[in-house]
Amino acid sequence: MKKLIFALLIAPFLSFAQTYSGPESVDCDTTTGNWYISNTSSKKILRRTPDGTLQNFLSGFTNGPYGIEVVGDRIYACDGNKIKGFLLSDGTQVTTITTTATFLNGITHDASGLLYATDFSGKKVYKINPANNTWNVFVTQTTSTPNGILYDATQNRLVCVTWGASAKLLGISLADSTVSILKTTSLSNIDGIARDGSGRWYVASWGANAIHRIESDFSGTPQQVYSGLSNPADIYYNLKNDTLAVPNAGNNTVVFINFALVSPTTDVQVQVKLKSFPNPAMDEIWLELPSDWDVQMLHCRLFDANGRCFEPEVMDKNGRSCRIAMNNLTPGLYHAILTQGEKSAYATFVKQ
Predict the structure, then answer these.
(1) 71, 114: one domain
(2) Are 238 and 27 in contact (CB under 8 A)?
């Protein structure tokens, strides 16, 4: 018998594809629902359509692409010391802006369409105007190594995460380019940053191989909301469907975490016991719930990696435990969403 314990607040969907190769940055064209993923190893940008189809979109990069940013009908990519722009409609290249940076990594844009890119090696931030192909060094020295960066319209600033131990979140004023420390964390090697509709921040840490959530005012301790990742890189939060996309540079996958499926009222830990593996005729999981749950009232839904929903019969209910047979399910990753009244809990398992 194998035993796995998960404490998840969300129901993630994984998208596996042979063509992911060193995925580094994810962005979304929310008008069409198309996702874009930069592949540093294959030197391409891939497009993932709303139905999950993965397509080659752009190729021919030299030193990347690393950070990517959708702005209107265009997508911009960091390629060494260059920012390259392309039309989303057909991939036509419309601009190349060459800077003096050493390694452009993270990129964002403000309300005026101006771009800001971090120079990972030079510890600088560059400001780029794609309308006239001009640029300048906006921050000459960030001290800490800058990585992912995000525009914060509410405070007229940029928020930048940093690499290294005790990684910091920096605030960069757009009014005068001054740098302040918004938060020093116990995390290491933070790569990406995103923000949800409530103003909360999400950061991807290589050290923890996890996603942590931080309150909008940067108070409190970062809360781990998803783990088990592999070098999570430059993340993106789609506000239209509450989905956080996470590229895993370490194992060539992209995780789509959907926070909209269920809104949990409490943090619930679910113990998952996997029995009779790998015999598919007897595959089953046992779920053990907290003492204040009534298993007799439990409802379970399973989602596969493509988002398809199954409602299996929950059998042998007994106190805090219940059994779900999986012999009718095909092999793969599944997410169990458990509800009882207003309570909800989540668990992830793999049928082999």
Answers:
(1) yes
(2) no
- Contacts of 97-103 with C-beta under 8 Å, sequence gap 24+, read 97/128, 97/130, 97/133, 97/134, 97/135, 99/126, 99/128, 99/135, 100/137, 101/126, 103/63, 103/66
Please give the pLDDT value at position 345: 67
Which range has the top average pLDDT, 21-30, 195-204, 241-250, 329-338?
21-30
CB neighbour class for 31 (10 Å; exposed up to 12, middle 13-18, buried from 19): exposed
CA–CA distance from 313 to each of 281, 288, 323, 335, 340 (Å)? 16, 16, 9, 15, 15
The answer for residues whose C-beta is within 8 angstroms of residue 41's C-beta and 6 or more apart is 21, 22
Residue 171 lies in a domain: yes
Q: Torsions phi, psi of 93, nearest 5? A: -75, 130
pLDDT at 299: 73
Whether residue 45 is found in the same domain as residue 111: yes
Q: Which residues pair with 136 in a beta bridge?
A: 127
Q: Residue 257's pLDDT band (boundaries 50, 70, 90)?
A: confident
Cβ-contact 294, 265 below 8 angstroms: no
Beta strands in 239-298 (DSSP E): 243-248, 253-258, 270-275, 284-288
CA quadruple 337, 340, 345, 347: dihedral, nearest 10: -40
B/e letters for 160-188, b = 16+ CB within 10 Å, e = fewer, are bbbbeeebbbbbbebeeeebeebbebebe
What pairs with residue 194 in β-bridges?
A: 202
Q: Tokens 């969300």 — which residue?
A: 10
Is 6 inside any structural domain? Answer: no
> Which helix or strand (DSSP H or E) is residue 147 part of?
strand 146-152
Say whether both 143 and 249 belong to one domain: yes
Q: Report the pLDDT averaged over residues 1-20.
A: 40
| Tokens found for residue 322 | 């219940």
Residue 68 lies in a domain: yes
**pLDDT over threshold 90, residue 80:** yes
Structure tokens at 161: 């995460």
Query: Cβ atoms within 10 A of the Cβ of 145, count?
Result: 19
Residue 5 lies in a domain: no
